Amino acid sequence: MLRAAARLYGHGANLRRELRRRTPIRLDRPVVSVGNLAVGGRNKTPVVAAIARMLHGWGERPSVLSRGYRRESPSRDVVVVRDADHMRATLAESGDEPFMLARELPGCCVLVHSRRTRAGQLAEQELHCTVHVLDDGFQHVQLARDANLVLLTLDDVLHGEVLPAGRLREPLHALEHADALLAVDTTAARLRMALGRSADVPIFEARRHHGPARALSGTMDFSRVHEEPVLLVTAVAEPARVAEDLRATGWRLADVMTFRDHHRYRGDDARQIAARARAVGASAVVTTAKDAVKLERHLPIDVPVAVVPLEVVIEPVDEFASWLRARLSLDPEGA
């Protein structure tokens, strides 16, 4: 029964894509889209941040265009979360991921609207942006793009069934619209072998790593917090991956406390987190950057809290940079 429903869902996804891509709107400035086939976390947000930083480092003024999923206070107007110099919107107006990106990307602009075309037009006309990064954009085919990047795991390919039988938003053949793939949790060679795709589609590797812990509240030697038993608190799509990554780099996790993806933390949650930390003997609570922007308003609690940022490097670095410059027709010498 699920397979029959999946076939119907897949046909619907194909039809939606074909109808929407017939007359895409093109912005004046180049667009790079970052997206995926599967629901859930595939490191899109840190990849968006990495690309925006790269573009800014080349002397461009990038905008990040996001739909602002599950905002508390949605608006009919385009929300400028930040311009190149300042934060301009609240967490409630922005959504957790755009707000997090805005904090992490000085010199870039972050805008939110369900119609990314409108956000891009405002970015060009009022904020003088020179290039756009379309967040979670693979299915947003109404907006034309110059580089279409898709993040893909080996599991996406080997168990590639669409909803509700599997985790894919679209059938695998939608990858024919991708300009390049980013291999997540696998190598480019293994992904290419699983796909059986021809060599004309570049496959790069998205390598993630955690940066040093930063204090959110409380007093302790946060440079050594990874040596202490800690409680991991997170509301992301794949919390097991976060826990696995931290353990692999030497963190001592006393316990993991999870909430639904994009959960809006309340005061009661903060009290429950403190109680859990005490119960499991944790010296501190650690969380992700996406969680931190929502949790910090309920701090301090009676346990130190730190954020462990996640960063992604797209490898090979020089090859990816050359490919992206060419796709976006940017000056190879930079600014």
TrEMBL record:
Any matching Pfam family: LpxK
Protein name: Tetraacyldisaccharide 4'-kinase
Enzyme class: transferase
PANTHER family per record: TETRAACYLDISACCHARIDE 4'-KINASE, TETRAACYLDISACCHARIDE 4'-KINASE, MITOCHONDRIAL-RELATED
Keywords, alphabetical: ATP-binding, Kinase, Lipid A biosynthesis, Lipid biosynthesis, Lipid metabolism, Nucleotide-binding, Transferase
Main function: Transfers the gamma-phosphate of ATP to the 4'-position of a tetraacyldisaccharide 1-phosphate intermediate (termed DS-1-P) to form tetraacyldisaccharide 1,4'-bis-phosphate (lipid IVA).
GO annotation, biological process: lipid A biosynthetic process; lipopolysaccharide core region biosynthetic process
Lineage: Bacteria, Pseudomonadati, Acidobacteriota, Vicinamibacteria, Vicinamibacterales
Source organism per UniProt: Luteitalea pratensis
GO cellular component, one term: plasma membrane
Entry's family note: Belongs to the LpxK family.
Reactions performed catalytically: a lipid A disaccharide + ATP = a lipid IVA + ADP + H(+)
Enzyme Commission identifier(s): 2.7.1.130
Pathway the protein contributes to: Glycolipid biosynthesis; lipid IV(A) biosynthesis; lipid IV(A) from (3R)-3-hydroxytetradecanoyl-[acyl-carrier-protein] and UDP-N-acetyl-alpha-D-glucosamine: step 6/6
GO terms, molecular function: ATP binding; lipid-A 4'-kinase activity
Family annotation (InterPro entries): LpxK, P-loop_NTPase
